[in-house]
Amino acid sequence: MTFSTELIEAGTPVLNHIMAHPFVKGIGDGKLSKQALMFYVIQDYNYLNEFLHSDAVALLKSTSREDMQIISQQIDFLLNSESEAHRNFCEVAGTSYASLQGQPMTPTTKLYTNHMLETLKSGDLIDIIAAMTPCPWTYGEIGDRLVEQGKNTADNVFTPWIELYANDDDADETPEQFPFFDILDREAPKYSRERLDQVKRSFLESCEFEWDFWEQSFYQKDWQFLPGVVLPVNTAAKAK
Ligand SMILES: Cc1ncc(CN)c(N)n1
User: Fold this and answer.
1) Which end of the chain has fewer CB atoms within 10 angstroms, the N or the C?
2) Which top-level enzyme class is recorded in the Swiss-Prot or TrEMBL entry (predicted)?
């Protein structure tokens, strides 16, 4: 069994919980509160900034052009395409993207991004990529499964979001669809079983953080005693 197959098997129960989460179900059904959408975009903007920093260090630590290509494609997707997913949510929430930027990180966003950033300080490429992989993996799976369920209908307001993340082809799910798994499979043979178990734990922690990210957005879980997220008054401003 390849290391990526092992990770996918271990992460699938968490992925199933993500699919059952009311935020993800709401994307499929085209129904989510404006507060949940805005809270998500505010925090996701923060999260993706740190994800980009992780990409930058992963690029620095990669030695093959193949790995560099995969990481740079991820950076390109994030900078040039993924903002469309945020704009889709902003349009439905009736607010502008600019109004949802520059706010403090919630405890969950901080925990998740610190978990990724921790690997940059002392980790190898395998540690950095393992902590990052649940991000593209779970979203690709969400997109694929919602398409399989026929949720990308013309009248679902979140169809642009679903189609952005769904993989284009109809092929069976393979690690190759999520090229970070290829990097993990190339790196894994260099390490002991004990070390790979640590890497697997880190991957699974990120899977759980993915679930928690939906949870915090659906319920707008924020700081209790410190200043936190301020949701803009819904002005129905045109999304920029
Ligand atoms: C928290 C989170 N995880 C994953 C993705 C998909 N890149 C995202 N935008 N935000």
Assistant:
1) N
2) hydrolase
Query: pLDDT tier at 240 (50, 70, 90 boundaries)?
Result: very low
pLDDT tens-digit map of 100-134: 999 999 999 999 999 999 999 989 999 999 999 99
pTM (2 d.p.): 0.95
Measured by CA distance, the residue closest to atom 9 of ligand 1 is: 44
Q: Does the beta carbon of 181 lie inside 6 Å of ligand 1?
A: no
Domain range annotation of the chain: 3-218
Count of CB atoms situated within 10 Å of the CB of 82: 18
Q: Other C-beta atoms within 10 Å of 63: how many? A: 8
Interval 37-72: pLDDT, tens: 999 999 999 999 999 999 999 999 999 999 999 999
Burial of 184 (0-12, 13-18, 19+ CB in 10 A): buried
CATH topology of domain 3-218: Heme Oxygenase; Chain A (1.20.910)
Atom of ligand 1 nearest to the CA of 209: 1
Where does the chain have alpha helices with state H?
3-19, 22-29, 34-61, 65-80, 83-93, 107-122, 125-132, 134-148, 159-165, 180-187, 193-219
Ligand 1 in reach of 44 Cβ (< 6 A): yes
As given in the structure block, the two tokens for residue 51 are 């994800």
